[in-house]
Design goal:
single chain, alpha/beta, four-stranded parallel β-sheet, four-stranded mixed β-sheet, 4 helices, 8 strands
Length: about 160
């Protein structure tokens, strides 16, 4: 039997890929039986070439344009680097029936990522990777690590994978 492939933020699977060199292990095997589901790690930030550890990045509105920049130096802009990596890997993402992503992440957040304005106010939107995924497939199914633990979200997600 072929297992259903789900793309997962690598930090949620225990990989130490976050900016601080740590993980955010979420014990997803509790929710996704390994006999039925294949959880495949993805870390856009590392895969596009950023180091571990690394300075923090964030989504920021600069001159009306949304950019992925370093927190301490907004001139260090990684938007095009992530866009290029995404384009090079676009076909790879078609294999996944859904994604489980790290909330609030500047790359992987699903409607939970702060997009900062010049005055430091912010609006919660998608991280850059999620935004690109949604532009590729408007019907892609996504959860974050908090939603996985909520039965209503989990059930809807699992039903949409079939």
């Amino acid at each position: 039997m072929t297992r259903i492939k789900i793309g997962v933020s690598a930090c949620l699977l225990g990989q130490k890929v976050r900016y601080d060199g740590k993980d955010k292990f979420a014990d997803l095997d509790k929710y996704f039986d390994p006999k039925l589901y294949q959880l495949i790690a993805i870390c856009p930030e590392v895969e596009m070439g950023l180091n571990i550890p690394r300075p923090s990045i964030q989504m920021r509105i600069i001159d009306g344009d949304t950019r992925l920049v370093q927190v301490d130096d907004h001139k260090l802009d990684f938007t095009e680097q992530l866009n290029k990596w995404f384009e090079e890997n676009k076909k790879r993402f078609d294999q996944f029936k859904g994604f489980i992503l790290k909330s609030k992440s500047p790359s992987c957040g699903n409607l939970t990522t702060p997009h900062f304005n010049a005055d430091e106010s912010f609006t919660l939107k998608d991280g850059l990777f999620v935004s690109l995924l949604k532009s590729q497939n408007k019907r892609v199914f996504m959860l974050d690590e908090k939603q996985v633990k909520q039965p209503a979200y989990d059930t809807e997600f699992l039903l949409n994978l079939i």
